[in-house]
Amino acid sequence: MAPRSEFPEEQQPLTTSQDPASPVDGGGDDYYEPKPHTPPSTASTTSLVLEHLSDKEAAERLHRGHLKQPQDELDVEDTLAWKYQTKPADKKARRVLYLLIAVGAIGWVAAFFLFLSQDRHLSHNERPHDPHATSTTGNGKKVELEQVLTGQWYPTQQSVRWIAGPEGEDGLLLERGDEGNFLFTHDVRYLGAEAATQLEHSKLLMKSGRFQVDSEIVVAHEAWPSPDHKKILVQSDYASNWRHSGTGRYWIFDVATQSGEPLDPASLYGRVQTASWSPNSDAVVFTRDNNMFIRHLDSDTATRITTDGGSELFYGVPDWVYEEEVLAGDSATWWSGDGKYVAFFRTDESQVPSFPVQYFFSSPTGSQKKEGEENYPETRKIKYPKAGAPMSVVSLQLYDVRKGQVFTVPIENDFADDDRLMTEVVWAGSTGKVIVRSTNRESDILKTVLIDADARTGKTVRERDVQKLDGGWFEVSETTTFVPADPAKGR
To answer: What residue spans carry the region label Disordered (predicted)?
Structure first.
């Protein structure tokens, strides 16, 4: 016979045959007793009983309290809810839940500030430009071929260039703005200052790009202030010729009165090829129909400088070859530093053979083709010297502004007329001397010529033959800068 246990609890059976749904006699009304927990093994231990003892007692107290309610208030759902009470979450689960909530909140706040820092809340038009972006997240419209062909996607340009001040000071920028602030200068040294200080060191030259002359409205295409910033040379009605050259109508605009007048009142509709200010701001020299003129501001008429310019003889402007391959510009006119002289090219291309250039899409004259002839190219002949063919003869002439005389200075040891390329012309300040760099047609011999306009003499002061040196040649450049003598600085 097995020994009797000292603990009466161990004598109680660990399992029961009663069904959870069977009634139990409680001395009164029947009630349903929940099914006890069935352990995984019949070999229970004292520790297992003790572990569940407190839970069992709590359940019995809850059961007794439940029985005190009227029976008719109980239904099946209440009974099942009482039977299967959910065990509250323990402290470890609550800590994990709180941690997940904290991590989610921190992540949301971080994502919100990242959203603001990347300007995601702004529309695509308001976001700053990202030059490194390869795509956009916006739902923009597709680019259409017609928009491309009509130039709707051409880039906008801003005209900014350096300009000397009225007293020759540097640090000024000339800019073109919108209507009401069309042309103005400002000092870059005060860009970071207060608005009042910047305004003090700025000057409005033209309020509007449109002004009226008599009954005509002039729309400015380009504008060049005079050195003293009191007048502006304005170009309108521009028409392109070659890569760098074109023609237009020119006007003189007064800054003080904000009014304009024709450059040459006697030729209101004359088309000017190039024009430039005198260093003294008192005259403008220009070329029209390949002849040169000068307009003194104290006079209402323009004075003719040359008379024989035409289709094969140019003054003050380059022909196609010099414009494209030598000067890379539309002007062959240079004022002396003191405004006493004007140096300019005389270009004779009468011996140069013509070369036909066909225009299939546009007309060189700008005129409309006749109906039925749209598919035929228009031909324009230009003077173009191929290898071995005669090239244009270019010489340097000078104009004495005070005397109104044109003269040519003979050069000692100069190239022959048919073997000379004049690549650069630079005035030596206000000394009355001009420096000219020339090469032969092969460009392997370079000569530097110094011309004294006052004495009307010229000579070659330097000559280099790179063919003998290393078999090379000279590239066309315009990098010569006059540095005046200064004994205090050792030059």
So the answer is: 1-45
Contact present, 335 and 344 (Cβ < 8 Å) = no
CB 248 within 8 A of CB 239: yes
**Domain locations in the chain as residue ranges:** 157-208, 409-491
Nearest C-alpha neighbor of 434 from the set 341, 332, 326: 341
Residue-wise pLDDT for 412-461, tens only, equals: 889 999 999 999 999 998 999 999 999 999 999 999 999 999 999 999 99
The continuous run of DSSP H or E covering 53 comes out as helix 46-67
The pLDDT of residue 264 is above 50: yes
Contacting residues for 189 by C-beta, under 8 A, at least 6 apart: 171, 201
In angstroms, the CA 169 to CA 190 distance is 14
Name the CA dihedral angle for 115, 116, 117, 118, rounded to a multiple of 10 degrees: 60
Cα–Cα dist 119/133, whole Å:
14
Tell me, what's the pLDDT at 154? Answer: 87
With a cut of 80, say whether residue 137 has pLDDT above it: no
Q: Compute the C-alpha angle 155/161/213, nearest 5°.
A: 85
* Cβ(182)–Cβ(206) below 8 Å: yes
Whole-angstrom distance, CA of residue 423 vs CA of residue 340: 23
In what helix (H) or strand (E) does residue 46 lie, and over which residues does it extend? helix 46-67
Indicate whether 297 pLDDT > 70. Answer: yes
| Cβ–Cβ < 8 Å for 213, 204 | no
CA–CA separation, 312 and 393 (whole Å): 11
DSSP label of 385: -
* Structure tokens given for 46: 């004292």
> Which element (helix H / strand E) includes 81?
helix 76-83
Residue type, 230: K
State the virtual CA torsion across 140, 145, 147, 149 in degrees, nearest 10.
150
Cα separations in angstroms, 376 against 32, 201, 372? 109, 57, 9
Q: How many CA atoms lie within 13 A of 166 on its CB side?
A: 10
Beta strands in 255-332 (DSSP E): 259-262, 272-277, 283-288, 291-296, 302-304, 313-315
Give exposure, 280-313, as e/b (b: 16+ Cβ within 10 Å). ebbbbbbbbebbbbbbebeeeebeebbeebeeeb
**Helix (H) / strand (E) containing 202:** strand 202-206
